[in-house]
Amino acid sequence: MSLGRITRFALAATIATIGLAGAQLAPASAATTQAEKPLAVRTVLYNANAAGVWKDNVTAAVAIWNASEKNVKLAAGSPATMTIDAIDGWPYAEPSGLGRGRIHLGEQAVRDGFDRTRITAHEIGHILGLPDNRTGLCSDLMSGHSAPTSCLNAHPSPKEAATVDRNFANGFAAAATKVTRYDECFTERACV
Ligand SMILES: [Zn+2]
Questions:
Q1: Is 123 among the catalytic positions?
Q2: Residue 13 clears pLDDT 60, i.e. is over it
Q3: Which of 129, 136, 144, 147 is most buried, most CB within 10 Å of its CB?
Q4: Same domain, 64 and 149
């Protein structure tokens, strides 16, 4: 092997090493850039195609939540992490993580006199990380059934809205409530 050939081999090996180093640096550099960016608003995509007669109430409840929060927004789209459908029984929510879960809007609560938009906004509140809070106050969205049927308020209280913003301050990774189903929000059973 001549010196010339060895030199060329060494040169080729050096270039290959630099190339590898460059490839390894690229992702690390991108990750650093991402970490330095300010936190973006999180969007929870939902699918309400099966919401039936509740469709307009979903639109109204989504608008209320979007006007109430800075760190999270709701939008119809795919892939949806929140699904909303209509059932004949009592409404309930099945959160499976922050910003994730299934909502079943139940006609039975409407027959009992509860407001559709309040019910819808309440169930969305569960997906946004709020538990039931049976204060009996109409000004609390999460008071659910404990407020009278005359209550038409579908807006979260300032405290509830602030809690949701805190829940999403660190993205979807924040610890969500461990409860996986809320099904006594608007039932005829007495709420404590
Ligand atoms: Zn509830």
A1: yes
A2: no
A3: 144
A4: yes
- Domains of the chain: total: 2
The residue from 107, 123, 184, 188 that is catalytic is 123
Domain hosting residue 165, numbered range: 42-173
Whether residue 22 sits in one domain with residue 70:
no
The CA 144 to ligand 1 mean position distance, Å, reads 6
Considering the domain architecture, whether residues 138 and 102 belong to the same structural domain is answered as yes
Q: Which residue has the higher pLDDT, 169 or 27?
A: 169
Residues 88, 10 share a domain: no
pTM of the model: 0.77
CA of 185 to the centre of ligand 1 (A): 4
Q: Is 82 left (phi over 0), alpha (psi -120 to 50) or beta?
A: beta
CA of 132 to the centre of ligand 1 (A): 5
31 domain residue, yes or no: yes
Q: How many Å lie between the centroid of ligand 1 and the Cα of residue 9? A: 71
